Amino acid sequence: MTTQSATPVPAQSGPNGEEHVDTVIIGAGQTGLATAYHLSRVGVETVVLDENARVGDHWRRRYDSLRLYTPAKYDSLPGMPFPLPPRTWPTGRQMGDYLEQYVEAMGLDVRHGMSVDRVRRGQDGDYVVTCGGTSLRARNVVVATGGEHHPRTPAFAGQIDPGIRQIHSNDYHNPSQLLPGEVLVVGASHSGADLALESAQAGHETWLAGPHRGQIPIDIEGFGGRLATPVLWFAANHVLTTRTPVGRKMRPEVRNHGGPLIRVKSEHLEAAGVHRTPARVTGAKEGLPVLDDGTVLDVRNVIWCTGFRQDFSFIDLPVVGEDGWPLDEGGVVSAAPGLYFVGLLFQRGFYSMLIGGAGRDGAFIASHIAARSAAASRRAM
């Protein structure tokens, strides 16, 4: 990235005793940390707020069998290779530990247990970030909370018999959480296929319900995957972006629909005895889930792989559109100078959703912030 270095501004007290820093990053996931890294390289004082007790906890909470869809070679953040052999497929826990090690290695200022309640703009143009009884005043704020905020389940879930165990994928860890008997997995994208296969292999008769979105026609961990990965990586970074017609066409599809199966394929589900149906689960009848074709499923467990609801309501500014997505250009909010987003689905390209793409988006946002901070320093002289 080519930019001017800003003069670091030491922490100080602002109005009403708030701590003053140049830039606050909300969220200590891969994109937040990559942005902090690039800001540190150009001398912008940055504080990262993490709602968790440890960096990487959001990865450690995912289901136990989770593995990334890209090998370790493509899972590094800037300045630190992923500490596994290149063709290894990291688990969620390994990813969480890597992020924690990254913070220590790069000397990033991450503050834990900081759940943000509100971001507002002061009369002087600075932003005030409130976390419980703590406030920070900053020239710039980067919202790095991604799009997975609140687990989404349909309203009729409350009509399902309380004797049926319901678990959202966000809270699922392994089959030991399931009651003996049949399992319905709702949502036939990546996590749905993963958990349906795991359920069947654990001995549960399992249904997987939801529209089929196709599947990647190669074994990503086999020879074909080894040949295809560099090509797919190039496409994700240079073809499927907001700068190309095909990328702009793909963006709403990615943001609004589940993706094709990647690791677990139709043949794996069939071999395990999973009952697949493209029908949607649309309601409950006498306490049992009902498909849109009228089929009633007598199951003991429901796993909701139905995604997440975004929530940017903590931002006390009109920067979110009617569709729930920020009104940004590649993460830059022109209507609110100094406010940025990273980690959004297809923010600037397909690569924005990949671990190895975090550094590219982080560098882009950091260059904007560095230029803005340098300009403010010149005005103050």
List keywords for this structure.
381 residues; five-stranded parallel beta sheet; 26% helix; 19% strand; globular
Overall description:
There is one protein chain. With 381 residues, this protein is α/β, with parallel strands linked by helices. It is 26% helix and 19% strand. The chain contains 8 helices and 17 strands. The chain has helices spanning 30-41, 57-60, 92-106, 190-201, 223-238, 245-256, 266-271, 358-380, and strands spanning 12-13, 19-26, 46-50, 110-112, 118-121, 127-131, 134-143, 150-151, 165-168, 183-186, 206-209, 275-277, 281-285, 288-291, 301-304, 308-309, 339-341. The strands form 4 sheets. Strands 1, 2, 3, 4, 5, 6, 7 and 17 form an 8-stranded mixed sheet that branches. Helix 1 (30-41) crosses helix 8 (358-380). The longest helix has 23 residues, at 358-380. It is globular and about 70 Å long. The model is unreliable at 1-15 (pLDDT under 50).
Chain-averaged pLDDT: 92
Strand content: 15-25%
Structural class: alpha/beta
Number of helices: 8
- The helix content, as a percent range, equals 25-40%
Over the alpha carbons, how many angstroms does the gyration radius reach?
22 Å
Main sheet summary: 8 strands, mixed
Terminal residue distance: 26 Å
Question: How many E strands?
Answer: 17
Order of helices and strands: EEHEHHEEEEEEEHEHHHEEEEEEH
> What best-fitting shape do the alpha-carbon axes yield?
globular
Poorly predicted residue ranges: 1-15
